[in-house]
Design brief:
The chain is an alpha/beta fold. It has 14 helices and twelve strands. It binds 1,4-dihydronicotinamide adenine dinucleotide (NAI) and 3-(4-hydroxy-phenyl)pyruvic acid (ENO). The site of 1,4-dihydronicotinamide adenine dinucleotide (NAI) has 27 residues, from α1, α4 and α10. 1,4-dihydronicotinamide adenine dinucleotide binds next to α1, α4 and α10. Keywords: Amino-acid biosynthesis, Aromatic amino acid biosynthesis, NAD, Oxidoreductase, Tyrosine biosynthesis.
Length: 369
């Protein structure tokens, strides 16, 4: 029996719990701790955990592996009571899922001489702009990278045990050094969030002068700013815990933008085309990810003319074709302009079927890249 403790049962903690439960239906017991009793109740009702408690030591007691799945800022605070808990099993693995690794690994190292357990930092490189256990899904990490950051001296059998358990997530588990991890994610995840939010803010300023900016904001703007809809508190914590690498990114970016500015100013068509061509070649050459980073669910966007009954029309069409929707959200509706309906499906085949049905009915439908 694998006894697993989940500390913080939100999107990530809940998704790890679900994938382990699915993989070991008879053989895993999930005990959880959260500061919010209501989250534990919901997690139990959804079948995500077997037992919930607001007493940290009770959740840790007897666990083979403890996953700390709280906001990054609280991981270090929780490490001490967990690693030094009298209830911690001899040889237990303590791991986390935080988006940055240097701080937490440093904290864990200060405790390594006094603990009965072993800490191995972790970061599943998949998520969603949704949060909370209600958005958890057993397939969140499928085919995504899951980074582990063991340090020198971490005995190999612990790493192998954790990897074996994480096979349940169907993620690709890789090892990196904590500082290398933080430098890389600053560039490919954290800094892009800053850029997306800054771009929204940038156009928002113009929008104060003319509402045409928002009205005309279509595919490209929506695609590039999608991640600006993520949880602001989570991103505050992430940015604060990876501050120096992100600031470095911004400094490099400003220098590069100076060059782009010169390029645009030059009016040199050939060089401008070369700039776009090179970016296209690099972007097109990115490795295929079947699922990963964001797509925990399959989202379909439908432009909807703002007339009464149109949403009913869309849902009825899907109902007739027996296509189940996991979530439905209206992203924007204003008088006399198009609104956007975001339909979320659990399975890709449902999304594809819905896309066809709605296109056949002359709706303008599109997906994220
Ligand atoms: N959301 C995402 O896309 C990804 C998030 N992460 C990391 O995973 C961690 C969790 O993120 P989510 O699951 O998205 O957040 P979430 O908000 O869905 O869940 C966090 C849970 O932790 C609980 N919590 C907060 N403070 C606590 C404390 N001091 N003690 C116990 N429980 C506490 C909350 O009540 C909530 O249930 C963060 O460190 C984040 O950086 C990693 C990869 C992707
Ligand atoms: O891909 C992104 O940047 C996401 O928004 C999903 C995400 C968020 C936080 C992470 O630590 C890892 C992945």
């Amino acid at each position: 029996m694998n006894r697993i403790a989940i500390i913080g049962v939100g999107l990530i903690g809940g998704s790890i719990a679900l994938s382990i439960k699915k993989h070991y239906p008879e053989d895993a017991f999930i005990q959880a701790y959260d500061i919010k009793e209501s989250n534990l109740q919901l997690a139990r009702a959804l079948g995500v955990i077997d037992q919930g408690t607001t007493e940290l030591h009770d959740a840790v007691a007897g666990a083979d592996v403890v996953f700390i799945c709280t906001p990054v800022q609280s991981v270090c605070q929780l490490l001490k009571p967990i690693m030094l808990s009298p209830a911690l099993k001899e040889g237990a693995i303590v791991t986390d899922v935080g988006s940055t690794k240097m701080n937490v690994v440093r904290c864990a190292q200060t405790l390594s001489a006094q603990t009965k357990g072993v800490f191995i930092g972790g970061h599943p490189m998949a998520g969603s702009h949704k949060s909370g256990v209600e958005a958890a899904t057993e397939r969140l990490f499928e085919n995504a990278y899951y980074v582990l950051t063991p340090v020198e001296g971490t005995e190999n059998h612990y790493i192998e045990r954790l990897k074996a358990l994480l096979a349940a997530t169907r993620a690709k588990v890789v090892e990196m050094k904590p500082d290398e991890h933080d430098r890389v994610v600053a560039a490919i995840s954290h800094f892009p969030h800053v850029i997306a939010s800054a771009l929204v803010e940038h156009v928002y300023q113009y929008q104060q002068e003319s509402e045409w900016y928002w009205r005309l904001a279509a595919g490209g703007f929506r695609d590039i700013t999608r991640i600006a809809s993520s949880n602001p508190k989570m991103w505050r914590d992430i940015v604060l815990s990876n501050q120096s690498f992100i600031v470095q990114q911004m400094r490099d970016w400003l220098k590069e933008m100076e060059q782009v500015l010169d390029l645009l100013d030059s009016g040199d068509g050939e060089k401008i085309e070369q700039f776009f061509r090179h970016a296209k070649e690099v972007r097109d050459g990115l490795p295929e990810t079947k699922r990963g980073a964001i797509p925990s669910f399959y989202d379909l966007y439908v432009d909807i003319p703002d007339y009464p009954g149109v949403i009913g029309q869309v849902t009825t069409l899907l109902g007739i074709h027996k296509i189940s929707i996991t979530n439905i959200a209206i992203l924007e509706t204003r008088e006399d302009i198009m609104g956007v309906l975001c339909l979320t499906f659990r399975h890709e085949r449902d999304m594809e079927k819905a896309q066809k049905v709605l296109r056949d009915a002359n709706f303008l439908v599109y997906r994220r890249d």
